[in-house]
Write a structure and sequence with these properties.
Helix content: over 70%
Largest sheet: none
Oligomer: single chain
Mean pLDDT: 93
Radius of gyration: 43 Å
Number of helices: 1
Distance between the termini: 147 Å
Length: about 100
């Protein structure tokens, strides 16, 4: 009888151990699924971030070009202003000197 009880006790322990292993496997599967979803979401975020970075780089390049154009136009405007100032001074001086025949 002791052998039968020992076998029965071992059998019960085996059933309980298998139940614990099954429960642990289910928890592990859920955790693995959660980790997989996190990795997939992280990869999506990296792709989105890469696209956003490309867009930002393009906009910065456009902005740099616009700044160069603005600098060029300001330089042209400064040159035109110098020419206008010289012409205006010459005109004013001609009025002061009375060279128009009077």
């Amino acid at each position: 009888m002791d052998v039968e009880r020992a076998i029965q006790a071992l059998s019960q322990r085996q059933v309980k151990a298998e139940a614990r292993v099954d429960a642990m496997e289910k928890r592990l599967d859920r955790r693995m699924d959660a980790i997989t979803k996190l990795l997939q979401q992280g990869m999506r975020m990296l792709v989105d971030l890469g696209e956003a970075q490309k867009d930002t780089d393009r906009r910065l390049k456009d902005l740099a070009q616009a700044q160069k154009d603005t600098d060029r136009r300001l330089k042209e405007l400064a040159e035109a202003q110098k020419t206008t100032d010289r012409t205006l001074r010459a005109f004013i001086n001609s009025l002061r000197n009375g060279r128009n025949g009077h």
